[in-house]
Amino acid sequence: MKGLTVKLTITQKDVDQTNDTKSSNNSIAKSLCGLSLEDSTTSTIATTKLYDKEEEEEEVEEDDNPDLVKMYDMTVESGGKFSRKATWSDLNRFTGQEMNPDVLRDWVVHYQETCFPEAATKPNHIPEKCYIKDENGGTIYKDFGWKPIKLNLNSGKVDVKEQWTKEVYLESFPLDYSTNIDNILLLDKCDKEVTSILRKSKLAGHPLALEMMKTDSKIITEFQGINSVTFGVLGNNKPSEKDGETGDEVWKDVKTLRALLQDMDLPKRTGNSREACVNVVAKESYLKARIYYKAFFSNDVATDHPGKFEDKQFWCWPIKYLFQYNDVPNAALIYEDIELRFFTDVKLEMNNKEWEWIKDDLGGWKKQYNNSS
Fold first, then answer.
1. Domain containing residue 73
2. How many distinct structural domains can be found in the chain?
3. Which domain of life does the protein's organism represent (predicted)?
4. In which band, very low, low, confident or very high, does the pLDDT at 323 lie, cut at 50, 70 and 90?
5. Is 53 part of a structural domain of the chain?
6. What are the DSSP E strand ranges found in the chain?
7. Three-class secondary structure of residue 164 per DSSP
């Protein structure tokens, strides 16, 4: 048996430099490549609010919001399989009927009449017996090299529900000419935590397919072009916690602002006013997807025609045709939901208020302010 795997690949995209006009030329960037699992209805930071509630609830199109810009390509792939020999009980549960050799014979006849109407008119086209494997001393499958019916669980489609990247505000610190990074790190604000999360739901769906999932799927998250770090998330490490209400497994990467900022330098202060501040900003990325797995039967149904049908006593019929393609689209499905939220490009930005003296309409002098960051 090969285990089932889910691979999340996050690749940094090339972004037009004009989109970075908000960033100070003196900003110092630092990547935080963490993993995160979080409900879409809850906060994404343990104690820090990333953006105002009104902004969070406002629904806007990406093209209408300059702060909601895709910065990363996020793709989801699944692979692997489980398989075992099928039983009559498996067929019962899959079809919802009481399957036995007589019922299966009716399916073979229906298939003949539908797909080979001329053959269905010939003598002995109706089999006397049907088999799904060698049993009770029979050796039909062994003698002809046919493959007995197997029940398989394979990876299915991936349905990406939502994905985006946007710039978020983490914290702000007042700044004067005596401020340095060491002074900032002493502030209580630096105790705030930034939490990246991966959430994996419990499996749900068809009971037969659920039984085939012998071990949990393994999720691997790979960041390409972001410190070239590959994270083995599930299977390699135990989850940080388990949701008591939903049973979801949660993996967290928690870092304080102090840990993120300690190796950074403050941007140089410019401007000629006394009012300035330094902001901590980051790129927040989010992915929500549903991963499907499909249970289906493969290989051949064997039939015995004692009076010989078209000069042969034994025939084999692919079960996927008898079941009208039970792999796609008629498979027994199960699924799990994953959510990934992570933060990158944590950096400091200077917000200066620059001004100059200009004359007003009456000929007097006044200060004209120009915000730059």
1. 2-15+22-101+130-167+193-265+285-340
2. 1
3. Eukaryota
4. confident
5. yes
6. 2-12, 29-30, 72-85, 129-131, 150-174, 193-200, 204-205, 218-224, 230-232, 241-242, 249-256, 276-298, 300-309, 312-318, 332-359, 365-372
7. strand
Task: Give bridge partners of residue 75 from the DSSP assignment.
Answer: 9
- Token couple for 253: 């990467």
Task: Kindly report the average pLDDT of the chain as a whole number.
Answer: 76
Instruction: List the strands of the sheet with 312-318, edge to edge.
Output: 129-131, 300-309, 312-318
Q: Is residue 175 part of a domain?
A: no
Separate counts of helices (H) and strands (E) for the chain: 8, 16
Sign of CA dihedral 195, 202, 73, 59: negative
What's the pTM value of the predicted model, to 2 decimals? 0.71
Give the SS3 label for residue 293: strand
In a domain, 350, yes or no: no
Contact 158, 77 (CB under 8 A): yes
Contact between 132 and 88 under an 8 Å Cβ cutoff? The reply is yes
Residue 182 has phi, psi (to 5 degrees) of -65, -40
CA 131 distance to own-chain centroid: 41
| Per-residue pLDDT tens over the stretch 20-64 | 444 433 333 333 333 333 332 222 222 222 223 333 333 334 444
Does any domain span residue 331? Answer: yes
Q: Is the pLDDT of residue 358 over 80?
A: no
- Could you give phi then psi for residue 190, rounded to 5 degrees? -75, -5
- The SS3 of residue 278 is strand
The CA–CA distances, whole Å, from 304 to 103, 142, 318 equal 15, 15, 15
Q: Given pLDDT bands bounded at 50, 70 and 90, which one contains residue 294? A: very high
Q: What is the pLDDT of residue 55?
A: 37
Residue 354: the pLDDT is 55
Would you say residue 337 has pLDDT above 80? Answer: yes
Give CA–CA dist 99/86, Å, rounded: 12
pLDDT for position 357: 58
CA dist., res. 32 & res. 283, Å (int)? 10
- 209-258: pLDDT as tens digits: 999 988 888 877 777 766 433 333 433 467 778 888 898 988 888 888 88
